[in-house]
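Annotated sample (chain length 237).
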Amino acid sequence: MLTLRGRKRLEPIPEILIFDVDGVLVDVRESFWRSALETVRFLTGKRVTWAELYKWKNKPGNNDDWSMVSNWATALGRATTYEEARDAFQQFYWDRDGRPGNVRREKILVTPKQVERWAKRFELDLFTGRTRQEFTYTFARWAGTRRFRTVVTMDDVARKKPHPDGLLKILGGRDPGTAIYVGDNVDDGLAARAAGVRFMAILPAGIYGYRQRAAKFRELGALALLPRATAINSWLK
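Output written by the structure step:
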């Protein structure tokens, strides 16, 4: 684990742990990301690559995959509104006409037992760029879900990430210094900075664009780069 401040323990220890979902608690490379890639190919007719997807995903404002698809397809010469991107994306993400959608490929990365251990020491919350429907599909039957006090989706705020509205909603006027936000995207870091909440970034070794992303997270004030969500445990001792 790469630390950015030469520390191995958070000071002060937070009272509130807020997690992003995609890329933090759930592996979405074969669900959301594959759907985005297939949608851009469908809209533009061009054989775009995973390397291009990673570049677009790491641009500010592209935490929302529908926004990313709209921006990406438009840049390729196929003017695409947010609504068009959203509707096309749904054809690949959700089950349609008897064809299983990419949503079935999602994998939760953290066990319910780990969530239970966190819940014994901290208030747990979620701030995700998913819609409520997308969140519910994946988490409704997962045993760890009930441990989270507040879940804020994109449907629950007027402004999406990188705006801090979701974090501020969770805090409800409490001191932002009592919380940590764990995310994996530039927009997560921007939202945390705007809310005054400490930020830790998920950045697995060997991931595409590691050095560039690490530099950006440093710029945003990330306290550490974690290979996975559970790596935060060494900072909470």
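Annotation: The first strand starts at residue 2 and ends at 3.
Annotation: The mean pLDDT is 95.
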